[in-house]
Specification:
The complex is a heterodimer of chains A (about 325) and B (about 350). Chain A has about 325 residues and is α/β, with parallel strands linked by helices. Chain A has a single domain, classed as Thiamin diphosphate (ThDP)-binding fold, Pyr/PP domains (Rossmann fold, 3-Layer(aba) Sandwich). Chain A contains ten helices and seven strands. In chain A, helix 6 links the parallel strand 2 and strand 3. In chain A, helix 1 packs across helix 10. The longest helix of chain A has 26 residues. Chain A is globular. The longest helix of chain B has 15 residues. The two termini of chain B are about 30 Å apart. In chain B, the strands form three sheets. A seven-stranded mixed β-sheet of chain B has the order 3-2-4-5-7-6-12, sandwiched between helices. In chain B, about 40% of the residues lie in helices and about 20% in strands. The chains are: A alpha/beta (about 325), B alpha/beta (about 350). The interface between A and B is large, with 42 and 37 residues. The complex binds thiamine diphosphate and magnesium ion.
């Protein structure tokens, strides 16, 4: 059971994610960005609900639409904005773009590559290292509906299953892979049914309900930690903006977006917290304000930060 | 390169100027035109890839309008599974179809590597089953896109027996080489240059226009230094040549156009003409295509050389995102001019 304090924390993290995302989108649309960025608008309940179910010593390999997961695990907003802006103090020291390369083993975060879903087998391997060392830790990663079509999905889950790896896979089913709707990607209603073919549990949850995502992840994490092997959780949601900042997503029916807009994970959670007497609206407004200030400060600092020195371009290719 | 320069290169008379203007296309429009014309000509030509169908028309809009015109039977949206759909293209090709497979970015071609270099490339040699597909790979950087949306992986494929590899630098060749690739009975990797897509316009001959595979093209004549290059770097080399001409250094610029098979005669002719050779490409210098070109010249034209062969390519690091780092990584006109100037003085 989540305490009232924890429920307010969940709200805070989702709100911080949204505040960062809104500011990022406005900055890039305003022409002050660099390169492309992915909005995670509408996915906040997935990355926060799942990430919140983990212990700090667990390892996460987030994907491109999991901003909240980085924030939740303690990556400072300024490091992320600085990464997006190619600054020397960004997580990847100007080497990689947007959230790519935002790995930090000090925060138990594995950075991803563009090629999807390559974090999947890597996260399985992280989990196998825990089995090997007899550590009660869990590895978790995310995969989109689109990326679930790649062969690595099958290879990784089968491997995790036979190895009984302490591993949790969150599927972010947001109805689209870039412009391609689910109907052109697969002929099943729920990706979760594939879990049966690996002999592991697979469940479907409302990806816009942070507590539902939390509860499902908690169950899977406990199972993994107990040595009972991997699980799959399919979170149904909707990608509310384009694939990336340049994309207007004209191919997505507006009615579909309007329908999902009513299910906004943050707005609905706020209403629930107020209705259940967990917080009053003023308190939530104050949190939202605090988040907005926090990310604005972070962006300002990132924009003031220097670019890397060109002379360092060949540095850091090899570990010492 | 602007239209005037191109038309001058092609030697058109004043009277033909307006017709030339009319046939001036962007690099990307020339690619689309080749696809449209080949689909109209040959019912076996079809398109496969992620997000290629309308209304979206592909990440860069190269295939925009084609599924509206030819139907989704011939423009197939693929699930995100390159290894699967490249293998499927091989199967379709074995049955006599001519799939043109779009990689969303050249960087993702590695996901299908096994199927390309092990299956498709070796097939004809092993049991005479021809695999006439084309993979279109949008490549190259300078666009602040980071390590996974900027790559130039042509050397991997040049190294694989059984493939052909082309890399057009002009709208005319973008069209002509794609048509040649589609008609070729072998698997062809077609590297199209993202930085040229909309920034480069040029004359494209009307009617059927095929650029033969395996034939390089002289882009500029000069007696002092030879610059051998391909893709977007052709334009950087031409810019450098213009700068150097003001200083009295005349550069010969050779556009390879096809990387496999190399036009050995054209390379040797260009190298022996000046005796001073600079080879340039965006891809990593280390073990890049330029290394093969340099070896060819060293082996077959050693006695003609008046200076060591020079090479300029990307650094041996993942392609960095941040502007100062990417600029340090990447060859450009200024770096080419500097190296060519040194060669001229050698
Ligand atoms: C191997 C590979 N091919 C193509 C791409 C280009 N690409 C980037 S994201 C994407 C769609 C991914 O869809 P999904 O997995 O559903 O994640 P979403 O973006 O919807 O969150 C594609 C095709 C890629 N990143 N990797
Ligand atoms: Mg998706």
């Amino acid at each position: 059971m989540l305490s009232n304090e924890q429920r307010i924390e969940l709200y805070y993290w989702m709100q911080l994610t949204r505040a960062f995302d809104d500011l990022m989108v406005a900055t890039w649309r305003g022409g002050r960005g660099l390169g492309g960025v992915f909005s995670q608008r509408g996915h906040e309940a997935i990355s926060i609900g799942s990430g919140y179910a983990l212990a700090p010593e667990d390892v996460v390999a987030p994907m491109h639409r999991d901003l909240g997961c980085y924030l939740l695990r303690g990556m400072a907003p300024v490091r992320i904005f600085a990464n997006m802006l190619g600054r020397a103090n960004g997580v990847s020291r100007g080497r990689d773009v947007n959230l790519h390369g935002a790995g930090d083993l000090g925060l138990n975060l594995v950075g991803f590559i563009s090629h999807l879903p390559h974090s999947l087998p890597v996260a399985v391997g992280v989990a196998m290292s825990f089995t090997y060392r007899r550590e009660a830790r869990v590895a978790l990663t995310y995969v989109g509906d689109g990326s679930s079509s790649a062969g690595l999905f099958h290879e990784s889950l089968n491997l995790a299953s036979v190895q009984k790896a302490p591993f949790v896979l969150i599927i972010e089913n947001n109805q689209y892979a870039y412009s391609t709707p689910l109907s052109q990607q697969m002929n099943i209603a729920d990706i979760a049914v594939r879990a049966a073919s690996y002999g592991i549990p697979g469940v479907v949850v409302d990806g816009n309900d942070v507590e539902a995502v939390y509860a499902a992840t908690k169950t899977a994490v406990e199972r993994a930690r107990a040595g009972d092997g991997p699980s799959l959780i399919e979170c149904k949601t909707m990608r509310m903006l384009g694939h990336a900042i340049h994309d207007g997503a004209e191919y997505v029916p507006r009615e579909l977006l309007a329908e999902w807009e009513k299910r906004d994970p943050i707005v609905t959670y706020a209403a629930r917290l107020v209705a259940e007497g967990v917080a009053d609206q003023d308190e939530l407004n104050e949190i939202a304000h605090r988040c907005a200030v926090e990310v604005a400060d972070a962006l300002a600092e990132a924009e003031r930060s220097p670019f890397p020195d060109a002379a360092t371009v060949t540095e850091g290719v090899y570990a010492p | 390169m602007n239209a005037a320069v191109v038309s001058a290169n092609y030697g058109f008379a004043e009277a033909e100027r307006s017709a030339v203007e009319e046939r001036t296309l962007t690099y990307i429009a020339a690619i689309s035109e080749a696809l449209r014309e080949e689909m109209a000509r040959d019912p076996n030509v079809l398109i496969m890839g992620e997000d290629v169908a309308d209304p979206f028309g592909g990440a860069f809009k190269v295939t925009k309008g084609l599924s509206d015109e030819f139907g989704t039977r011939r423009v197939l949206n693929m699930p995100m599974a390159e290894l699967g759909f490249i293998g499927a293209a091989t199967g379709m090709a074995l049955m006599g179809l001519r799939p043109v497979v779009e990689m969303q970015f050249a960087d993702f071609i590695s996901a299908g590597f096994d199927s390309i270099v092990q299956f498709a490339a070796t097939n004809y040699y092993r049991w005479q089953g021809a695999v006439p597909w084309v993979i279109r790979a949008p490549s190259d950087g300078g666009l602040r896109s980071g390590p996974f949306h900027s790559q130039n992986p042509e050397a991997w494929f040049v190294h694989a027996p059984g493939l052909k590899v082309v890399a057009p630098a002009t709208p005319a060749d973008a069209k002509g080489l794609l048509i040649a690739a589609i008609r070729d009975n072998n698997p062809v990797i077609y590297f199209e240059s993202k930085p040229l897509y909309r920034s480069l316009k040029g004359y494209v001959p009307p009617g059927e226009h095929v650029t033969p595979i395996g034939v390089a093209q002289t882009m500029r004549q000069g007696d002092d230094v030879t610059i051998i290059t391909y893709g977007a770097q052709v334009h950087q080399a031409l810019e450098a040549a213009q700068t150097l001409a003001v200083e009295g250094i005349e550069c010969e610029v050779l556009d390879l156009r096809t990387l496999k098979p190399l036009d050995e005669e054209a390379i040797l002719a260009a190298a022996t003409k000046t005796g001073k050779v600079l080879i340039v490409h965006s891809a990593n210098r280390l073990a890049g295509v330029g290394a093969e070109v340099a070896a060819l010249i060293a082996e077959r034209a050693f006695e003609w050389l008046d200076a060591p062969i020079a090479r300029l390519g990307g650094l041996d690091v993942p392609i960095p995102f941040s502007p100062p780092l990417e600029d340090a990584y990447r060859p450009n006109a200024a770096k080419i001019a500097r190296m060519a100037r040194e060669l001229a003085r050698f």
